[in-house]
Amino acid sequence: MKNAIRFSVSLDRRLAHELDRMSAEKGYDNRSLAIADMIRAHLVEHRQQQGDGEIAGSITLVYDHHKHHLQDLLTDLQHEHRDVIISALHCHLDHDNCLEVLAVRGKASKIKKLADELIAAKGVKHGKLTITTTGKDLPT
Ligand code: NI
To answer: How far is the CA of 63 from the centre of ligand 1 (A)?
Structure first.
C-alpha cells in the first residue's frame, strides 16, 4: 500500500478475536482492510454530524400515489431542489404504493432540509435519508 503507516494497537484478546471473526464473515482479506473501512465509516458519520460540508446520499420514500396532491407536491419539491438532486428512480411497488429513490449531492444542511420536507409530506409512509461521502477527501 502506498503511503501506508504501521502502528500497533493493544486490544483485549477476545475483542481482537471478534474483530478477526467479523472481518472473515464480511469477506475481508485481512484485518487492516476491515479496520480501514471502519475508520472511514466513522469519519463519514463524524463529518455529517459536525460540519456543513458537501455530502452525497440517497433519500428513499414510500408513498401511496392515490393520496391527493402528494405526487404533485413531491414533484414540485424535486423541481425546486434540482441543484442537489442528481438522479431519481421511481418504482411502482404495487397497485397503490410507489418507491422513490433520489440520489443527492450538496451542502449537508440543504440535503437534510429537503429530506425532512419530503419525509414529512402527508401521505409519505416511510422515508429515510442515507448519507455517504462524496469521496473527495477520503483516502482509500
Ligand atoms: Ni408509482
So the answer is: 9
- Give distance in angstroms: CA of 58 to centre of ligand 1: 18
> What string of DSSP letters covers 20-48?
HHHHHHTT-SSHHHHHHHHHHHHHHHHHH
Give the global pTM: 0.78
- In tens, the pLDDT along 14-71 reads 999 999 999 999 999 988 999 999 999 888 888 777 778 899 999 999 999 888 788 8
Domains and CATH numbers, the chain: 13-50 (1.10.1220), 54-132 (3.30.70.1150)
- Tell which residue, 60, 46, 3, has the closest CA to residue 133: 46
Ligand 1 centroid to 112 CA: how many Å? 24
The pocket of ion ligand 1, defined by CB under 5 A, consists of 92, 98
Residue 65 Cα to ligand 1 midpoint, Å, equals 6
